[in-house]
Design goal:
188 residues; mainly alpha; Four Helix Bundle (Hemerythrin (Met), subunit A); 5 helices; elongated
């Protein structure tokens, strides 16, 4: 369960080599095709992040509830921390891809990328700190240091989920506006 820097570096390095090979092997798109692809891909990735955020928020909430009740074992905490870690790693993969395509994304998508990345970084930082604390302190789960990390995981997860929801609601409103504008044959 211990997160190691070597393991993370190896995964990122393998991903970069795999991604580089795929990019070099794929046919080139025109700038407008690339931009259209990036816009659609950014929306899809934000939707996938929203799905992960639901599970992340649920597991973070459960973890926070465990931290208030001493009858639960450290193994229960470890189970929920592992689930949180899985969700935030999945979000991290998607935000990394969003970062790569952000220059071709719409302005609102670029803002979403910045905000989601910030929330995800907070969740990841506190998750790692909680995992490290738990691995060294199985019998001290009710001290403020651990509880603070758990509370920050829950708060940042909730903030990320709400942020993504708002941006996706904005996208739906924009699409509806554009459809109505077309139906009514209104010029911009």
């Amino acid at each position: 369960m211990r997160f190691t820097l070597k393991r993370a570096t190896a995964v990122v390095t393998a991903f970069v080599f795999l991604w580089t090979g795929l990019v070099l092997a794929s046919p080139r798109m025109t700038p407008s095709e690339e931009s259209a692809y990036s816009i659609e891909r950014a929306s899809r990735l934000l939707s996938e992040i929203q799905d992960e955020a639901v599970g992340l928020t649920r597991n973070a909430g459960q973890l926070e509830a465990l931290a208030r009740h001493p009858q639960y074992s450290w193994q229960s905490h470890a189970t929920y921390l592992e689930a949180v870690k899985g969700h935030i790693n999945a979000v991290g993969d998607r935000t990394a891809e969003l970062q790569r395509i952000s220059r071709d994304a719409l302005p609102w998508q670029q803002q979403a990328i910045k905000q989601v990345t910030s929330h995800a970084a907070q969740v990841a930082t506190h998750t790692q700190a909680a995992i490290l604390y738990l691995s060294d302190n199985h019998n001290r789960l009710f001290v403020p240091e651990y509880k603070d990390h758990v509370a920050m995981i829950a708060d940042s997860s909730q903030s990320m989920s709400q942020t993504v929801d708002k941006f996706l609601d904005y996208e739906q409103a924009q699409q509806k506006f554009q459809r109505l504008q077309t139906q009514l044959e209104l010029a911009e």
